[in-house]
Amino acid sequence: MSVLYADLRERLETFEAMRCVASLPGEFTVKIVKGRVYHYFQATLSTGRAQIYIGKDSDELRRFIKEQRSERTKVLADEKLFQRLGSQIIAGGVVPVPNEMARIIHRLADSGLFMVGGVLVGSIAFHILGTHFGALWENASRTTQDIDLAGEANVKVAVPDIQADVPAVIDSLKMGFFSVPRLSNKEPSTSYAIRGKTLRIDILTPGKSADSAPVFIRRFNAAAQPLKYLDYLIENPLIAVMVHGDWNPP
Q: In the structure, what pLDDT confidence band is assigned to residue 48 with cuts at 50, 70 and 90?
C-alpha cells in the first residue's frame, strides 16, 4: 500500500506542476466580432462557468488549440490512472475520505486555497495523514464531519497577490451551506453548516492574544477564528494525497 501511495503522490505532484488549459473542464469556442475571429476557452471553474480569452485567430493560435486538445487526451489518461491507484490503495485497507467531505476539499483545492497558504487541519487531516505515513488508524471511518481550514492572517514573505474566494467556492457547491451566526451580530461568521447535517466547515487562524474576535484573511476572502498555538501546528505543513471513493462532481 505504501508503494502505491508513494507512486500516486509522485505522479500527482508532476501532474499539478504541469497543469495547463487542457487540465480544466471545458471546451474551446470562438466568437466573431466585426468579421474577426477570436478564440476563447469556456471553462467550468470552482466558482462557476467562465470564459478565458485565448487570442485573435492565427495559424499559431490554431496550432496551440490543436496541441491542447491532444493534451486533453493525456490528461484524461492520467486521471484514470489516479483513480485506479486510489482504488488499489482502498482495496489495501485504507478507509477513504467520505464522499461529501472529499467533494468539498477537492473544490477548495481547485480554487487555489492550498496554494495561497491554506492548510487542512483537524480530524480529517489526521485521517489523510494516516494514509500518508502508511498507518491504518482504528475507527478511521468515524472521522468527525468537520472540515477545518487554517491559514495565517498575514503573509510573512513576498508571494504573488492571488486569492481564493472561500465563501464563493462553498456557495458554488450548492449543498445548502449557510454562514453560522456568531453571538455578536457585529462579528462575521467563521463557520458554515448545513441544516439537518453534522457536516461543517470552520476557518481558523493562529491567535496571538486572548482576543477571540474573528480575523479577516484577504487571501481567503473570509473571516477566521483565532486559535492559540495553531501556528505551531501549521508551521511546516505536509503535502499529502486525499484518497476517496467515487463521487460525481457538478
A: low
* Backbone region of residue 112 per phi and psi (left: phi > 0; alpha: psi in -120 to 50; beta: other values): left
Distance of CA 57 to the CA centre of its chain: 34
Cell of 38: 477570436
Is pTM beyond 0.70? Reply is: yes
**158 in a domain, yes or no?**
yes
Is residue 241 in a domain? no
| pLDDT for the residue numbered 2 | 85
Q: Are 86 and 110 in a shared domain?
A: no
Structurally, the chain folds into a number of domains equal to 2
Contacts with 95 (C-beta within 8 Å, 6 or more apart), sequence order: 127, 136, 137, 140, 141
Q: Which amino acid is residue 203, in one-letter code?
A: I
Whether residue 138 is found in the same domain as residue 222:
yes
Q: Which of 91, 112, 136 is the last residue of a domain?
A: 91
Q: Read off the pLDDT of residues 147-200 as tens digits, 9 standing for 90 and up.
A: 999 999 876 554 555 788 999 999 988 999 999 998 888 899 999 999 999 999
